[in-house]
Amino acid sequence: MSSLPYRVRPTPPGAASRALARRACAGGALFAILGAGAPAAAQESPPLELSSFPSTTLEVVHRDPHGVRRYPFQVWVADTPARAEQGLMFVSDLPESRGMVFPLPAPRVETMWMKNTYIELDMLFIRTDGRVLKIIERAHPLSEELLSSGEPVSAVLELRGGEVQRLGLKPGDTVTWKKPAS
């Protein structure tokens, strides 16, 4: 176990074989990983360690009549299909200053869900220009409800549930980050 300030719960027995893809395709169709054609060993593999994900600093800039406020976050980058599928599944604690960004290979309507996610999350859907299009606050843990951007986006940012309200973040805020070194 790493020394980072988060905890990952072990995969419940059989959860990997029952888990559906974390993210749905652009049309909203959900692909199931129900054992068809997949080797049993791959289905029962343990979750990836978050310490194996690339990490970078991300900044959300909020502008209002009182001025400009900048909020930095250390985020894991879900930059492969396996990392994006897992996301923050099985995480039982997420510090206020942490999150995960899901950069998309091309802009699309993005659909997320909370299967095997034990904590509330705030989701910020980010346009190609870096502006927040839509925010879903306090997505319900373990829910299989599809949560859609509604319009094409280039990334999704997940933060600890309640951070959006605590910081006063709104659609139109700007999100920037540097691609981690390979």
Describe the model.
The chain is mainly beta. The protein has one domain (about 10-175): Jelly Rolls. Helices cover about 10% and strands about 40% of the residues. The protein has helices spanning about 15-20, 40-45, 80-85, 165, and strands spanning about 5-10, 55-65, 65-75, 90-95, 100-110, 120-125, 130-140, 145-160, 175. The strands form two sheets. A seven-stranded mixed beta sheet has the order 7-6-8-5-3-2-9. The longest helix is centred in the middle third of the chain and has 6 residues, at about 80-85. The protein is globular. The two termini are about 25 Å apart.
Which features characterize this protein?
182 residues; mainly beta; seven-stranded mixed beta sheet; two-stranded antiparallel ribbon; 9 strands
Helix content: 10-25%
**Radius of gyration from the CA trace?**
16 Å
What is the quaternary state of this protein? single chain
Please write the CATH class name. Answer: Mainly Beta
CATH architectural label? Sandwich
Structural class estimated from helices and strands: mainly beta
